Amino acid sequence: MASISLSSFTYGWKYDVFLSFRGQDIRHGFIGYLYKALSGRGIHTFIDDEELQRGEHIMPSLVKAITETRIAIPVFSKNYAFSSFCLDELVNILSLVKEKGRLVLPVFYDVDPSDVRHQRGSYQEALARHEKRFQNDKEKVQKWRIALCQAADLSGYHFKHGNENECEFIEKIIEEISNVINRDPLHIADYPVGLESRVLKVTSLLDGRSDGVCMVGIHGIGGIGKTTVARAVYNFIADQFEGLCFLENVRENSIKHGLVHLQETLLYDILGKKDIKLGSVYKGIPVIKHRLHRKKVLLVLDDVDKLDQLKAIVGESSWFGRGSRVIITTRDKHLLTSHGVEKTYEVDGLNMNEALELICWNAFKTDKVDSNYENVLNRAVSYASGLPLALEVMGSYLVRKSIKEWESAIDQFERIPDEKIHNILKIHHGICPEYGIGVLIEKSLIKITLNGRVILHDLIEDMGKEIVRQESPEEPGKRSRLWFHEDIIHVFEENTGTSSIQVIILDFPNFEEVVEWDGKAFKEMKNLKTLIIRVGGFSRGPDHLPNSLRVLEWWGYPSPSLPSNFHPKKLVILELPQSCLMSLDLLIPKKKFVNMRVLNFDDCEFITEIPDVSGAPNLEEFRLGTFPPIKLSSLEKLKLSSCHSLKSFPEILGKMEHITVLDLLDTPIKELPFTIHNLTRLERVVLIGCGIVQLPSSIFGMPELHELIAGECTMLLPKQDNFEAQASSMVLNLGLSGCHVSDDFLRIGLPLFSNIKELYLSQNEFTTLPACIKDCYFLTKIHLDGCKNLKKICGVPLNLETLSAKWCTSLKNLDLTLLPKCVKLCHFLKTLILDNCKNLKKIRGVPPNIRTLSARDCPSLNFWCRSVLQNEKLHAEGGDKEFHLPETCIPMWFTHHVYGHDASITFWFRKKVPAISLCLVVRPGTYEEIIQPRFIINGDRKTDV
After folding, report:
1. Which of 50, 56, 89, 131 is catalytic?
2. Number of domains within the chain
3. Spans of the chain below 50 pLDDT
4. Per-residue pLDDT tens digits for 158-204
5. 610 vs 615: CA distance, rounded Å
6. Per its UniProt record, what PANTHER family does this chain match (predicted)?
7. Which domain holds residue 20?
8. Would you tell me the crossing angle of helices 84-100 and 58-67 to the nearest 10 degrees?
9. Catalytic site residue 89?
10. Both 259 and 340 in a single domain?
C-alpha cells in the first residue's frame, strides 16, 4: 500500500512548481522565459541549476525535491527522450500522481502529444537507442515507455511555433498554476491518526483515471470520522480540479439557512461570484446545471440527512463537467441508495493501535506514554470501541490526570456517557420501530453478521442506556429496563420494582455475589416481559414471577419448582439450565402454551420426570440430557450435543415434519432407532465423537437426508431390521473422517451411498479405494488425507473434480505408487492434491482440465514426471493452472528471470494483456500466504490474479 504523509493532506510543500526539461533543447529559451514569469508572480519554482547545492548527488536530491513540490511540469521537447536523466525524473513525477495526489501539467513544446504517447519520430529513435544501451536492464526502458504514455494522456498544454504567441502561451500556464496554489487546504484534525488507509479506499472508488463523473458515498455512525476522511480526500486530490466546494454541515445549515443558501454557496465557491441570488431551489437547479456542466469540479456534501438536499445540489451526474467528482457523507446509507450512488465506503472504527495513538496524542500530546498507564489506556480504548470522537473527548478531558483520575473518569463514562458524545449519537434516537432492522442497518446503528448475529456499537448501546436512565435518574425501579447489576440488586433487595419495568438482564461481575432477598421483588412488576439472569447467586427462590413474561432465562434457578401462581400464557422462551428444578408442574397437559418455541433444561441434574409437552404444539427447540419417546410435530431443531449420559436415542412416535438438523456431537449414542425415518424432513445428521454407532436401514429411505457427518467414531453397517426395500441413500455429503473405516466397510457400504457428491475419508485405516467407487457417478470430491495405510486407488468416478490424498505414506513400490490410468480420463478433474506422499514416484497422465496440482514434499517423484508437469504446452493451453512441485527449478522456456525477496519484472504490450505464466522457486517451509504476486497494469495495481 502506498505511504501517505501528513503533507499529502495539508499542503506542506517546499516548492510550488518543479520543472523537468532537456536543458540543451530549451534551457535558454522557453524554460528561461517560463521560470522568469513564475518567479515574477511569486511562484516558488525548483530548477536544478539554481536549487541544487554543489557536491550533492543529483538523483536523491531531485527525488526529494519532487516529493516536496505541489505541481510538476514536464516539458517535452524534441530531444527530451534522449536523456535517461529526464526519463527517470518523469517516472518519479508520475508515481506521485497516484500515490500522493499531485498535479502534473505536461507541456508539449513543438512536439505532438501523440508522438510522445506512441513513441514515434525522435521518441522512437531515443527509445531504440536506450534499449541497446540498457539491454541488460529492459525493465528500466519499459518503465520509461509506460511513463511517456501516461504523461501524454494527461491534460496539459501543446505549443507549436506559428500557431500561438509564446508569451501568451506562458501566461495561460501561469494563470492555471496561480489558481491552484492560491487555494487553502482544509483543516483535517489536530491528530490525524489512521487516515492513510481510509483515504486510499475512497480515492480508489473515485477512479481518478476515468473521464466520467463519479459520485462516492461515505457512511457510518456519528463520530466515526466521516468528515475527517472527506476533508483529507479533498486536500489529497483538490489540485486536479478547476473548481472546488466543500459544503460542511449540510444537515444543520439546511435547517438554519435553507437549501437555496447551499446552492448559492456552491456557485460562489466554484465561480467566485458573490452576486448570485437564486430565489428558490427550483430556480437554482437549472443555474447549477448551466454554469457547471462544463467544469471539472470537486464537490463534497458533508453530513447529508435528507434526499431533497441531494436533489437540490447534485441531482444528476450530467450537472457537472467531465472528470468531476462528488463525495457525500451521511449516517444513512439508504439515502445514497435512493440517489443512485453505487460506490460507497463505510468508515470502520480505529483498530487497537490507532485508538491508543489517538488517545495518547490528545491526553499526553505524544505517543510515548508512561507504561504505568497501559492498563487504564486499554480500558479507555475498549470503552470507545474504535470511535474517534469518544477517544478525543476522553483524551482531552484527562490531560495531565493521574491514573486514579483516569479510572474514576472511565467509571463515570461507563455509567453516564459524556454529553458531547451522547448528543452526537442521540441524533438517531426516535426512529420509528415499524421501520425495521433494514433501516437500522442503513443508518449504521447495527450490523448483521453472516450467522445472523446482531452487533450494536458499544457507544450506541451506552446512548440508549442513558436515555433509559433519564426516565428515573434516582430510582431504578421506575425505569423501563434494568441492566446494571447494582441497580438490579437494589430493586430485588429493597422491593422497589414497579409496573414500569419491562426488561431485566442481570450478569454479575462477581460469581460469588449473592442476592439477599425475600423472593417478593417481582410482585409489582406486572409488565415485565423479559427476565434474563445468567450469572449470580440468590439466597432463595422467587415467591412470584410475572405472568406477563415472554422470555424467562435463569441460569442456576435457585428453587426445585416454579411458583404455583405462575401461569405465563404468552411465554415464548423458557431456559433454566444448570438449575435446581426437580419437576415442571408448569407444563401439565391441560395447560396450553401455543406461543412456546424453546425449552432448555440443560444440565438440570435433579429433574426426575419429564412431563408431556403436547400442550406446546409449536415447540421448535427442546434441550435436555435424557428423553422419553418424542411426539412433537412442530419441533424444528433437536440438539443433544455433549449429553454425556445419553446412550440411547428415543423412539420417534409419529411423523415430525419440521426437524431438519439432528446434532448428536460427543454423545455416547450406540444406535439410532428404526423410527428415525419419521423425521421426514431431516437434512443433516451429526454423529461426531459418538463412539460406536449402528445405523438403521431405514435411514437409506429418507428422501431429504443430504448430509451425514460421523467423524471420529466407528460407523457400523446397517443392521437387519424391518426395512425391506433398501433404496440407495440420498445423502450427498458423507463425512467419515477418523472413523476407523475398513476395506470391508468401503466394499459393502459405498454402493449404499451411490448419490454422494462429496466423500470425506481422511485419517482412516483402509488400504484400498475399491473399484466400486466408480459407480458413484455424481461424486465430485474425494478427501483421503492422512490415510497412511492406503496402498492402491483402483478407480475414481469420471465426474470427479477434486482428489486430495495428502500424507498417504504407504504408497511405496512401483506398482503401488502409480495412480491409475483412469485419472487421465477424468475430464472434470480440476484439483489433485498429493502433498507429503513421500514415496510417490510417478503421476501417469495429466487430466485435460486440471487447474491445481500439488505434490509438495514428494521427494521420490521422478525427473521425467517433473519435466512433463513443467511442459510449456501444458501450461499454455486450457486457461489458468497452478502447480506445486518439489525440488524443482525454473524451466528454460521462461523469458524473464529475477531473484530476491521483492523481485519485480516489467514488460510492455500494446493492446490485450497477454497470457502470463509465473514460476516461483521458494525454500522449503515457506508459507503460501506470504507469497503475494502483484500485477501493475498502466499504473493500476491488480491483486486478484
Report:
1. 89
2. 7
3. 1-6, 50-58, 427-435, 626, 628, 722-725, 813-818, 943-945
4. 988 877 888 888 888 888 888 787 777 888 888 888 888 899 899 88
5. 13
6. ARCHAEAL ATPASE, LEUCINE-RICH REPEAT-CONTAINING PROTEIN
7. 7-181
8. 30
9. yes
10. yes
